[in-house]
Design brief:
The chain is α/β, with parallel strands linked by helices. It is built from 6 helices and 14 strands. Helix 2 links the parallel strand 4 and strand 5. The chain starts with 12 loop residues before the first strand and ends with a helix.
């Protein structure tokens, strides 16, 4: 049933409505991509004028996609250096055991190097809480000490869509198996940030969608193997002085890697078999012009992702009469 009361029938339904978000800490500036420009314009003004010397970036409990906190801290620190404010203390507080630990030890080592070069401290294994009896105060655990900063920027926490008629957990996320089938319903699949998989990220959502699409096609009688969702985490960290590319496969079926050059092609920030070529095309690379390639940048092609994308791109070029 739609929000207008219209009823629609289906043979297969894919729920891909995404997730909402909420501030995790009331007494901190909350970062979102939409509020980025306004929030940081004011923050950078305060840094330039010397009003802010102690700055904290917080990964709240329950946030599994932590990369934005490191990106924000690095870019802000280098901005401060560029303004001549070289005495700004920048700290990241995160529950992770290591910086961007989800990407593995090699990526963490590179990120630690990036942080050290920018003069940023990372307090890993920490949790930030707002004590009920101390309004406006944030406490760092373990140690039970006040968070000492003049500006605090925290990531938002995802909340599920909590759709009527669809099973959900206590935070509103949809339980689905590795093929995307919603547990407890017939002929219903789900993918993306709306499901219970803890990491909310576009590249993983694309992989979840691939698994659901194959499962739906198999259920419809297609002659194919419906492969389960196999998460391979890919991310690009903007360091303020370049980029760090990271890939991590928890099962080790594909090699884990972290480097200063692209690990997939097209080198979009969000990677996916069909999503990367789409994003590159949206950026103008596929509008009949030759895709620009950075000079001297070696590319380690991810065959599982790049070969199907290249084949699709060639087929589209043939249809346009370009080959």
């Amino acid at each position: 049933m739609t929000d207008t009361g219209r009823r629609l029938s289906y043979d297969a339904l894919l729920v891909a409505v995404g997730a909402g978000s909420e501030p995790a800490l009331r007494h901190a500036l909350t970062w979102t991509p939409e509020a980025d420009a306004d929030l940081f314009a004011g923050l950078l003004r305060d840094l330039e004028e010397g009003y802010v010397k102690r700055l904290a970036f917080v990964v709240p409990a329950g946030v599994a996609w932590t990369l934005p906190a490191y990106e924000l801290a690095l870019m802000t620190a280098w901005q401060a250096w560029g303004m001549g404010q070289n005495d700004v203390d920048v700290v990241i507080y995160t529950p992770e055991d290591a910086p961007l630990g989800a990407f593995g030890a090699q990526a963490s080592a590179l990120v630690r190097q990036d942080l050290a070069e920018a003069g940023i401290r990372a307090e890993t294994g920490t949790h930030i809480a707002e004590p009920p009896g101390a309004p406006g105060e944030l406490i760092v655990y373990p140690g039970e000490r006040p968070l000492d900063a003049e500006r605090i920027v925290a990531l938002r926490r995802a909340i599920g869509p909590n759709l009527p008629g669809v099973p959900s957990d206590v935070r509103g996320f949809i339980p689905a198996d590795l093929h995307g089938r919603v547990i407890g319903l017939e002929a219903v699949w789900a993918a993306g940030d709306a499901i219970t998989f803890p990491v909310k990220q576009g590249g993983l959502a694309a992989q979840e969608a691939d698994a659901a699409a194959e499962s739906i096609a198999f259920a419809a009688g297609a002659d194919l193997q419906a492969r389960p969702f196999h998460p391979v985490l890919r991310g690009v960290l903007l360091t303020g002085r370049g980029r760090t590319w990271m890939r991590h496969d928890p099962s080790n079926e594909t090699p884990n890697a972290a480097d200063r050059h692209a690990l997939w092609w097209p080198p979009t920030k969000i990677a996916g078999r069909y999503l990367s070529p789409y994003l590159a095309e949206r950026a103008g690379a596929g509008s009949g012009a030759q895709a620009p390639q950075p000079p001297g940048q070696p590319v380690d092609l991810d065959l599982q992702q790049s070969v199907p994308a290249a084949a699709d791109a060639l087929r589209r070029a043939e249809l346009r009469g370009e080959t």
